[in-house]
Write a structure and sequence with these properties.
This protein has a domain of 138 residues: 3-Layer(aba) Sandwich (Rossmann fold), CATH 3.40.50.1000. Helix content is 46%, strand content 11%. It is globular, with a radius of gyration of 17 Å. Strands 3-4-5 form a three-stranded parallel beta sheet, with helices on one face. It has a two-stranded parallel sheet with strand order 1-2. Keywords: Carbohydrate metabolism, Hydrolase, Magnesium, Metal-binding. This is Putative haloacid dehalogenase-like hydrolase. It comes from Aureococcus anophagefferens (Harmful bloom alga). InterPro entries: Beta-PGM-like, HAD-like_sf, HAD-SF_hydro_IA, HAD_sf.
C-alpha cells in the first residue's frame, strides 16, 4: 500500500472498514490517493490478488471451523453448493484449491464459482447471486446464502434469498440489522435440523442449493 502513497496502518480494523466484502474496484477507488484511473485500479487489484495467492500457497487461508463436516452433510443430503465471492477469481480459486486438498472427499461438494467482478454488478447488488441461481436453474425460495459481510448479506437479501450470517467478522446483531435471517458462529452450528428449518421457512423442497 505504501508504494501507492497510502500511509494508513493496515490492520484488522482497517481491513474491516475498507476491504471486507467489497469488490477490488470499490476498495482501491476508496483508499488510493486522488482519482485512480481504470488501469491503476486493475493493476492494484492484480497485485493484491497475486499477494493473496502467494500467502495462501505459503501459509494457507483460515478455514472456518466445521467446514469439512458441513460439506459432508451437504453431500449426504444431496445439497448443491456453490461459492459466490467479491474476491478476484485467482484468490477464490486458491482458497477452493486449499479446501479441495484439505478435504479431498467433501471439498468436491462445492461445484461452481461465481465472481462478483465478473458480473454486471458486484455485491451489494444481487447480480452474483441471481447469476448463480440462473445457472443452477433454481428460484430464490429454494436457496440459502451463507455470508460473512454486510455487503454480502445485502446482496443475498436483494436477490430474495434467506441469508445466514457467519459471525467471523461481524456481530450477530449487526448481521441481523443488515438483513440476515439467522446467524451462526461457525459451520459446526449448521446442522441438518438447522438446514431443514431454513428450508421449511421458505417452503422449499428437500434439496436446497447453498450459495
Amino acid at each position: 500500500m505504501a508504494s501507492h502513497g497510502v500511509s494508513d496502518v493496515v490492520d484488522a480494523a482497517w481491513f474491516k472498514a475498507h476491504v471486507a466484502g467489497k469488490v477490488d474496484d470499490a476498495v482501491f477507488a476508496d483508499v488510493l490517493p486522488g482519482t485512480p484511473s481504470a488501469d491503476e485500479l486493475r493493476a492494484a487489484s492484480a497485485k493484491k490478488d497475486a499477494l493473496f495467492c502467494e500467502h495462501v500457497s505459503k501459509t494457507g487461508a483460515t478455514i472456518v471451523e466445521g467446514l469439512d463436516g458441513f460439506l459432508g452433510r451437504c453431500r449426504a443430503e444431496g445439497v448443491t453448493c456453490v461459492a459466490v465471492s467479491n474476491a478476484q477469481r485467482g484468490g477464490c480459486e486458491a482458497v477452493l484449491g486449499q479446501i479441495a486438498r484439505e478435504f479431498p472427499e467433501n471439498g468436491a461438494a462445492i461445484s461452481d464459482l461465481f465472481v462478483g467482478a465478473e458480473c454486471a454488478r458486484a455485491k451489494p447488488f444481487p447480480d452474483p447471486y441471481l447469476e448463480a441461481m440462473a445457472r443452477l436453474g433454481v428460484e430464490p425460495k429454494t436457496c440459502v446464502v451463507f455470508e460473512d459481510s454486510g455487503t454480502g448479506i445485502k446482496a443475498g437479501v436483494a436477490a430474495g434469498v434467506a441469508v445466514v450470517g457467519l459471525t467471523t467478522s461481524m456481530t450477530a446483531e449487526a448481521m441481523r440489522s443488515a438483513g440476515a435471517t439467522a446467524t451462526v458462529a461457525d459451520w459446526t452450528e449448521v446442522t441438518p435440523d438447522f438446514l431443514r428449518g431454513l428450508v421449511a421457512q421458505q417452503a422449499a423442497g428437500p434439496s436446497c442449493p447453498l450459495l
